[in-house]
Amino acid sequence: MAGRATAELAEAAAAGGADLIEIGFPFSDPLADGPVVRRAAEQALADGMRTGECLRCLSDVRDRVSVPLVPMTYSSLLEAFGWERFAAEARAAGATSLIVADLPVDVHPELERIQLVAPTSTDERIALAAESTDGWLYLVTVAGTTGARTELSPALAPLVARTRALTDTPLYAGFGISTPEQAAAAADLADGVVVGSAALLAAEEGPVALERFVAQLRAALV
Asked: How much is the pTM?
């Protein structure tokens, strides 16, 4: 989540072996997010992290790490800031791409972004998302919000199978992946793994804890 300590935390995540860093731009009603991300967003907003500050935070992170950076946010933020303006300023600040969690694939198709598909997505929507996604396709492993789960969602395997039958686009699995064991199991199916809530919990303990957690995830994927 964008905040005062984000640049240092991003540096720690990269040192731990993260190939890509997703940076949340806080929104007051994050429909896709569970309690950990919601708490982080509320704290960021309380600390004054509005869109301009988040973009400056993104630029600070870019100055300290070389891995791809992907802001994740919601469409209302872009609507208020300006769609074209946000895309241009995010790219200028160092964003590699964008994730807009609640923006359907066929709305603002001119906005280059990483598309999300879920177990509830039809084959038609998956194919459309794959055609327009920016680099890779984000597979939402559960029909619910972000957050740690006790086991990997059984919906991931059939979602991967359906999606691979429709596209050769790289597939990254996220939502509900929180342990090295779950990450390894997801990576056996998909091409990459996204870990959010568990990383935020580790980040609450500081950069050293976050680097250690990311290194554990990375070791499980070797």
From this structure: 0.92
